[in-house]
Amino acid sequence: CCDLQPKRECCCNDASSRKGDVVAADTNGSARGVVPEEKIRNWKVQYSRKRRSWCIYFHLDEEVCRGMPMTHAEVLVRLIVPDPWSFTVYDTLQRKFHIGEILSVERFKCWQILFNAQEEATISMVKRILSTTTLLANPNRDMWCMRINRKGWIGGPLWNLNHSNDYYLIRVTDIEDITGEGILKILKNRLGLDAARKVTYSTMWLLGISTREPHSRRLAERIAVARKRRVGLFANPHFQVAEVIKASSYFGGDGD
Q1: In the chain, at which residue ranges do the beta strands (DSSP E only) sit?
Q2: DSSP assignment of 193-256, as one string?
Q3: Is a pLDDT exceeding 60 seen at residue 3?
Q4: Cβ contacts of residue 102 below 8 Å, gap of 6+?
Q5: Which of 157-161, 192-196, 223-227 has the lowest mean pLDDT?
Q6: Are 225 and 207 contacting, i.e. CB atoms less than 8 angstroms apart?
Q7: How far apart are CA 219 and CA 213, in angstroms?
Q8: Half-sphere exposure of 199 (CA within 13 A, CB side)
Q9: pLDDT level of residue 158 (50, 70, 90 thresholds)
Q10: pLDDT on residue 144
Q11: For residues 55 and 13, what is the distance between their CA atoms, to the nearest angstrom?
């Protein structure tokens, strides 16, 4: 329910709870477990203008912080209407690179958020972000799905894989992720989601390839990074990194 860093001041919105309950509560009020009262130091009650409610402030010992769970949330976003970026990339691969094996190109936004919270509380916080803000997705133009700790997807699916073809994902991430850092600050400072630890923003390209393994993987790896003018397309190696992922494994929830 707070910053959860050793020896730093933390806050919980439920000022009516006992000390042991408050320490283990999440930002949305869900219980996370009870921490012994002797682990809490510098206990005080104060009104928070940011949260617009009475809060309980306290310090957590280092061993308490280490015991809090970490949960990984992943949100995929794509346009409701046909994506002009995807058409441009497909046309470039066909006309300029003369790669006829590429049958389709689709673009997704990928948000990876690390929370210091249980899985149920993480789902609640992500849904709150998606329903009350346009930080991750705009409901007027985007559709989304998410998964927690690389398990099954919630919502969607946003993809349609033809089993007669092979599919690979190319995930492109900036080395200095300014977008992710900015979203993290907003989640903490404006939305009061102190359980958020890290946000990573990536662009994911889903490629439909007519050939099979191992040629399909080699083709995806060859065009993932723009090393020369006519070699590679998606990532600029000077400030981006690219990761090639088997689409069936990724969408199937078996991890990367």
Answers
A1: 9-12, 40-48, 53-60, 71-79, 102-115, 142-148, 153-154, 166-174, 196-209, 240-246
A2: -TTEEEEEEEEEEEEEESS-TTHHHHHHHHHHB--BTTB--SB-TTTEEEEEEEHHHHHTTS--
A3: no
A4: 90, 93, 94, 207, 208, 209, 210, 219
A5: 157-161
A6: no
A7: 10
A8: 23
A9: confident
A10: 96
A11: 5
Minimum mean pLDDT among 28-42, 92-106, 110-124, 213-227: which range? Answer: 28-42
Task: Residue 155: count other Cβ atoms within 10 Å of its Cβ.
Answer: 14
Q: How far is CA 212 from CA 76, 103, 117, 162, 164, in A?
A: 26, 13, 41, 13, 9
Short-list 183, 193, 197, 199, CA closest to 26: 193
Tell me what the mean pLDDT of segment 194-214 comes to.
Answer: 94
3-state secondary structure (DSSP) of residue 110: strand
Return the sign of the alpha-carbon dihedral for residues 147, 151, 155, 158.
positive
Report the distance separating Cα 50 and Cα 187, nearest Å: 12
* Alpha carbons 122 and 162: distance in angstroms, whole number: 32
